[in-house]
Amino acid sequence: MKTQRFIPFFLLALVLAGLQFLTQITDTSYYLTQMTMTAYYSLVIIGLCLVMGYAGQISLGHAGFFAIGGYTSAVLTTYNLIHLLEKGNSFVLFLAGKGLLVNGENLYGESLLYVTPWLACILALVLTALIAFLIGIPVLKLKGHYLAMATMGFGIIIYRVVLAWEIMGEADGISDVPGFTLMPGITVNGDFSNRIQNYYIACTILLVAFILLQNLIHSRVGRALRAIHGSEEAADAMGVNTARYKLYTFVLSAVFAALAGIFLTHYNGGIGPSEAGIMKSVRYVAIVAIGGMASMWGTLIMASVLNFLSLRGLFGSYDDAVFGVILIIIMLFAPDGILRLHIWQRFKKFKTGK
Amino acid sequence: MTLLDVKNVNKRFGGLQAVSDVSFTVDRGMIKAVIGPNGAGKTTLFNLISGNTPLNSGTISFNNKKIHGFKPYQVAQCGISRTFQNIKLFHDMTALENVMVGRHTKSRAGFMAGMFHLPFTWGEEKEIRHKCLELLELLEIRELADVEATSLSFGQQRAVEFARALASEPDLLLLDEPAAGLNIYETAEIARLISKIRSQGITVLLVEHDMSLVMDISDEIVVLSFGRKIAEDTPREIQQNKEVIQIYLGDDDVEN
Ligand SMILES: Nc1ncnc2c1ncn2[C@@H]1O[C@H](COP(=O)(O)OP(=O)(O)OP(=O)(O)O)[C@@H](O)[C@H]1O
Ligand SMILES: [Mg+2]
Fold first, then answer.
1. Does B102 touch chain A if contact means CB atoms closer than 8 Å?
2. Is the CB of residue A14 less than 8 Å away from at least one CB of chain B?
3. Residues in contact with ligand 1 (CB, 6 Å cut-off)
4. Which residue's CA is the closest to the ligand 1 atom numbered 26?
5. B196 alpha carbon to ligand 2 midpoint, in Å?
6. In contact, A291 and A336? CB cutoff 8 Å
7. How far is A6 from chain B (nearest CA, A)?
8. Could you tell me if A212 lies within 8 Å of chain B, comparing CB atoms?
9. Of these four, A95, B59, B72, B232, which has the most CB atoms within 10 Å of its CB?
């Protein structure tokens, strides 16, 4: 029983490793870059799947959370603190004393001083959780279209903020974001020599997040979330604190989005305002929808395939339009998604011989 | 001993006084019925008790504790469980899963425990499943455990909702028209079940239009008409109460 639970995850890990192996033997390891990015985007999408498919809520603002994570980390790890240190700023001195700052040098030999990526990452996650919490309290009182519009409004605000704020690099975004050394020898960055390692870092994070979410949806909390989806009034009457459960779910998925944003920013060495764009949010929602809403596996598969194709440029200049159209078609013709043809049920029956 | 104490409660919907200055008590261990013509305010009264609708004035206490102003989930946590007149099952969930949600207040695994599949949740999940299968057994729908609840027949859905309400081991069970839409056999079955539940120490407050059921099983009856309580007595007395006969049974359609 215990070990059986892990068989699908083990198979998933094998597939992910197998894909890397495939690029190696076919000499196509340039695919790894897009595959790594795909893993990070998929992390956002499985988090959103919990909100949409299980708790039955919607968020058209998840690109905003992704951006808050990515931008916070980018700003903190690129903003030069050397002048503040020279001026004797006590807070900067304190950080330096604790070993939370790193020295560097730019192309012109100027000395630089940044916050370490670890601290930046933690601060970015905390900030995102806080914002998601504060936004979630009023917004999650809304339902359906109103919730969609309110979260979209939030997303647009974040987009406008990163576009207008000088410290965020305005339309250019932030570049020269340093690598994120997770532990000696393991660094998230875009170095050519680090490509395989980074693919596995991204896949590990995705896999761990996926297992955590799978555990959650099969727990008491997961049941309560599905109950909220099924009938909020009845869930409430059964003692489920629906407002709190919806809020925690929202915050959790926002943190996943931020984590993806942080890692992808370090991987790409930068982040731009398009990551906060509304079309990104639409894309995330569309993929959850096509993955089958209440299907983590379907969503994961769809997220992997579609993001990869999109990153490979298959949809050309129609990229955003493709996802908009997907969303419309799904809503019209297959609100349960296309992967939900009960393949798993059939598979289970086959396995148990019934 | 008084379990539920409803005092002078009022509820208005715009200009409509749906519940008007209603007071009554429910003693521990009894079956009490609320009857009255359509639109008398019975469901509204239930919603006031369960916290689904805020009251305009009055007090409601349960186990000597004020519960008006509580959110529905808080009322549930106090030990009051309910069913709905228009069945509200969780769609896309099996009968068993529906009932398992009913066990929410009796278990504690939170987000962290769930995500990390902490060892204490293993036993808890097992206990929940076991207990809920027992309830399905009690309601004779054990074989439907893995069927999607909303695809069941009407009577079976009522049974699932019943089991779900019982899963929290409530002190007080509110049943809003448990026999509505059931045939006479199923109704007799429900009557037997309600008596059985009471014998397990659960107090029952029910709304019902089926007079034979009400007269059979209840210890006391409250009669509402246009939001007012017009009588409160034993079934025998209620059947002889002039005002009740006139207002309630005097209509051409006795069953309604
Ligand atoms: N949410 C609401 N908003 C406005 N009016 C309401 C609302 N809920 C109930 N009412 C009105 O309050 C009155 C009492 O309704 P209620 O549902 O409590 O009656 P009932 O006794 O349960 O009737 P029935 O036997 O038909 O179930 C009715 O006139 C109804 O139209
Ligand atoms: Mg009613």
1. yes
2. no
3. B 13, 16, 18, 36, 38-44, 85
4. B38
5. 24
6. no
7. 12
8. yes
9. B72
Which residue in A222, A238, A294 is closest to B164 by CB distance? A238
Mutate to test the pocket of ligand 1, among B10, B34, B38, B43 (most ligand atoms within 8 A of CB): B43
Which residue among B73, B89, B98 places its CB closest to the CB of A242?
B73
> Ligand 1: distance of its center to the CA of A146 in Å?
27
Separation in Å, CA A29 to CA A18, A20, A25, A34, A304: 13, 8, 9, 10, 17
**In CATH, which superfamily holds the domain spanning B1-79+171-183+202-256?**
P-loop containing nucleotide triphosphate hydrolases (3.40.50.300)
**Alpha-carbon gap, residue B97 to B24, rounded angstroms:** 36
Give the position of tokens 């968020």.
A59
The answer to whether residues A298 and A210 touch, using CB atoms and an 8 Å cutoff, is no
> Ligand 1 centre from B13 Cα, in Å?
9
Question: Domain boundaries in chain B?
Answer: 1-79+171-183+202-256, 90-169
A239 conformational bin, left if phi > 0, alpha if psi -120 to 50, beta if neither = left
Assign A351 a pLDDT band (cuts: 50, 70, 90). low
Q: Which of A218, A235, A252 sits opposite B101 (nearest CB)?
A: A235
Mind listing the pLDDT tens digit for each residue in A276-320?
999 999 999 999 988 878 889 989 999 999 999 998 888 888 888
Instruction: Output A224-227 pairs: Cβ under 8 A, ≥24 positions apart.
Output: A224/B101, A224/B104, A225/A50, A225/A54, A225/A55, A225/A56, A225/A249, A226/A54, A226/A56, A226/A294, A226/B90, A226/B92, A226/B93, A226/B97, A227/B90, A227/B93, A227/B98, A227/B101
List pLDDT tens digits, range A63-104.
999 999 999 999 999 887 777 777 777 787 788 777 788 877
**Phi/psi at B139 (5° precision):** -90, 5
C-beta of residue A177 within 8 angstroms of C-beta of residue A266: yes
SS3 content of chain A, % helix, strand, coil (to 5): 75, 5, 20
A296 vs B: CB within 8 A: no
